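User: Hello, can you help with two protein structures?

Assistant: Certainly.
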Amino acid sequence: MSRRTEIEKSPIMPFSTITVEANRDQKTLLHNSAIVSQIESFGTHFAKSITLDENGLPPVFIYLAKGAKPMARVLSDSLNENRTEQDLSFHPVKYTFYDGTTRMDKPRRIDKRKYRYPDVVGRRVILIDDVHDTGETVAQAIQDARDAGATVSDCIFLLEKPGVDEGRIIRTAQWAEGVNKHVLFNIPNVWVEGFGLDTNERGRRN
């Protein structure tokens, strides 16, 4: 299966800008062109560090749906255009903090067919997520990949919020040992929409 099929055959563009609400209006935080350019630039450089394992296999990329899907689309093209080996595979998984209307202490993975976990036994996994804020979801994603028999080498985030904001702890989860973290944009502790990030699907065009 091709990488394009795995990230769906819907159009890659256009993506919306990332906005933040200010005085009940939406204010642009990051323009679409800057976001895409940064992802492509990162992909060009990161492609050089991708190596095959002892079985001649590349790492498996897992992106956290739905928010990270636009980033995964752009990144998959950038990475594969800058490699001569076989195409890289990208797979979606999805997490929720809610059981019905009740918020849980930690996120759980939704095991629906669309988000069925790939076979990663003995493989190296690279995770892609939209925002690193509390860190709870990516911590669970790392643990799930390890429980599935994989080694997680890297996590790539589109955005990262500060770990502490005005004395309040935002990042409640500890970073997993041995995992490299890559952040494309640092932003303030604000609620953002666009480029896959949404409020009840508002701000999402993917």
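That covers the first. Now for the second protein you mentioned:
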Amino acid sequence: MGSPIGTEFDASIAHYLGRAARVQGDLEQARANYEQGLVLYRQIGDTLGVAVLLNALGSVAAAQGDDATAQELFAQSVPLVRTTGERYDLANVQVEVGLTMVRQGDIARGQDLLLQGLRLWRDIGPRMGIAMALSGLAEVATAAGQSERAGRLFGAARLLYSPNSRLLSDHATIDLEQSIARAREQLDGEAFSSGWNAGQAMSEE
């Protein structure tokens, strides 16, 4: 059996290999790497590592259309990361899970998690975290047919968004441009543009 240090290193490597596969769209390889990392994190009792990889596995399941498994994994991840006291990771998980729930049609619970994540990101500070949360809430507004609100939230998110941010996590890349394009197609163009201009005019501070 490897040493705890070796096991922690191996868990980290499996995690980052999973991230690389996820970004490349190889969901099966991402899942295999995440599962390997999860086993190793559990062996060394790394609660945060376990929580983060449960979330990552949930995102893979959601991308594969397995909503039931995704919800089960998310249900384990969110309360577990809360026990660690790590606000950064909690905010990240809340926004990622919230956005996935919204896209699965679980609007109420998804919106609640997005709002919780937004409040945390505002306290913590990174603008990219705020952008991620605002983008998710813009998708809530899009689903509700709220054209002006969706445009305003997307405009503010785009103002803050940085595609090269280190904050982007496992299923990371909120594809903001595609989300905006879909919203423009679905909503009233004039109202959306009015909201967009208002969002873009907001202070970045």
